[in-house]
Amino acid sequence: MAEEELLRVEGLSKTISGTSILSDVDMVVRKGDLKVLIGPSGGGKSTLLQCINLLLFPDSGRIVLDGREVTFRRKREVLAYRQQIGMIFQEFNLFDHLNALQNVSIALRKVRRMSSRQAAERAERELERVGIWEQKGLYPAELSGGQKQRLSIARALAMDPAILLLDEPTSALDPELIGEVLAVIRDLSQRGMTMLMATHQMGFARTLAQEIMFMEQGRIVEQGAPQELLSHSGAEQSRTLSFCSKINELYA
Amino acid sequence: MDPSFIWSELVPALNKGLIVSLLLIVPSACIGLLLGILVGFSRTFGPPWLSRAASAYATIFRGTPLLVQLFMLYFGLPGIGIYLTPYVAAVAGFSLCSGAYHSEYIRGALLSIKSGQIRAAESLGFSRVKTMVHIILPQAMRRALPGVGNELIYLIKYSSLAYIITCIELTGEGKILAAQTFRYTEVFLIVGCYYLLLVSLASVGLRKLEDMLRVPGFGKG
Ligand SMILES: Nc1ncnc2c1ncn2[C@@H]1O[C@H](COP(=O)(O)OP(=O)(O)O)[C@@H](O)[C@H]1O
Ligand SMILES: [Mg+2]
């Protein structure tokens, strides 16, 4: 496992209309790691991921990507930075007027200014990588939920992001479709993609994550390796573990 | 019905008027649509002052008769030292009026596009403007097309008001000839046919455009 640090977040805080949503979040993601963010709904996971991508601007704190501090005062720098951070949303957020191939190629053409042919070739490769090459001519409304999420992953990967942020990528899916999306994420992780993922899929987190962070009321309450946080051995049960047993009861 | 009158006098006069009508309709349609897009975006995504100004414009031009607007432009503006030719006043009136209606359809279409797509585009590095041009506008236009198309059809018909401010187009030519010859029935029957033809052609064109732009499953969600 690589040890080099890729993303560092320090003292990140965010207040939205008078309510503190994130307070003083610190976090490090190392190259090649799959880091999992868990915690109750409303705890700030989505807000944190959006702050890291600068879709929301933090009120204070530092973000360091690959050794370079991110300055988010200048528009051009923000746009360039966002290209390095891939984002996967719970609701897919595909472009409804474009077919699968175009969903992947449009950013290559309009943001990266690639030629249509180059962009299409690259897009086909990404569709192949997530296993929906055969659906390249279909529009979002014609795809299954699992295919939609795989398409959104392909769209993000085409920009060669340094890190992928995934915000509950399987929460909007029917149970039988979750597996195909998790398989793609597992495959990416095994090929060394750095990822930070909010999820309730504890089995997946336990077997694949290098680290789990438990987040509640805008703070990181616990973090550590899955075997540390999810074992029953310690004197007192971890917050993470009690949360997990709660969701397991719910879904059992 | 007197065929020799129709073919040797009426049709040539109306053809002359038709050209003026087209010179009114085509630029007004283009300017009006552009205006409608700008105003629709301003109303939806603009800063508060711009959004309010754009909404006020739409309210004023949707809330007053087109004829009154034309009178204002042609007879009213000289009062503050602005003189427009009949043609310019007519194009300005038609553009401003249809722009107000277009903005309504486009605003509705913009509001129906889920904000998640904007976030997705921005997460890929699209700037605000590129997001609007490449992601939001193509979808908004598809959704607005039925309303916008109707407005274009209306424009063809209300272009006939131009003759009242002395811009002599299709209806104006007909009116003059009818008054000279007292053949009101024949003249306005044929004038009506001209408009019917224009409207039919526009409808067919719009339907073709809708088919061309059709995206499976789009607009149902
Ligand atoms: N735009 C907003 N305005 C006000 N409150 C918000 C906004 N976005 C999120 N919140 C609040 O921030 C908190 C954290 O939300 P979120 O980041 O979505 O948590 P999670 O993803 O862990 O469920 C919630 O209490 C939510 O109500
Ligand atoms: Mg969330």
Which key phrases capture this entry?
heterodimer; A: 252 residues; alpha/beta; Rossmann fold; 2 domains; 6-stranded mixed beta sheet; 4-stranded antiparallel beta sheet; 9 helices; globular; B: MetI-like fold; 0% strand; flat; binds adenosine-5'-diphosphate; binds magnesium ion
Q: What this model shows, in words?
A:
- The complex is a heterodimer of chains A (252) and B (221).
- Chain A is an alpha/beta fold.
- Chain A has 9 helices and 10 strands.
- Chain A folds into 2 domains: 169 residues, P-loop containing nucleotide triphosphate hydrolases (Rossmann fold, 3-Layer(aba) Sandwich); 66 residues, no CATH class.
- Chain A is 38% helix and 25% strand.
- In chain A, β9 and β10 form a beta hairpin.
- Chain B has one domain: MetI-like fold (Orthogonal Bundle).
- Chain B starts with a helix and ends in an 8-residue tail after the last helix.
- The structure holds adenosine-5'-diphosphate and magnesium ion.
- The site of adenosine-5'-diphosphate has 11 residues of chain A, from α1.
- Adenosine-5'-diphosphate binds next to α1 of chain A.
CATH-scheme architecture of the largest domain in chain A? 3-Layer(aba) Sandwich
Q: State the low-pLDDT regions of chain B, or none.
A: none
Assign the CATH topology of chain B: MetI-like fold
Q: What is the helix/strand order of chain A? A: EEEHEEHEHHHEHEHEEHH
- Quantity of strands of chain A, as a count: 10
Q: Remind me, CATH topology of the largest domain in chain A?
A: Rossmann fold
This entry's quaternary arrangement is heterodimer
> What do we call the CATH homologous superfamily of the largest domain in chain A?
P-loop containing nucleotide triphosphate hydrolases
The CATH superfamily of chain B turns out to be MetI-like
User: Could you give the distance between the termini of chain B?
Assistant: 55 Å
First-residue to last-residue Cα separation of chain A: 34 Å
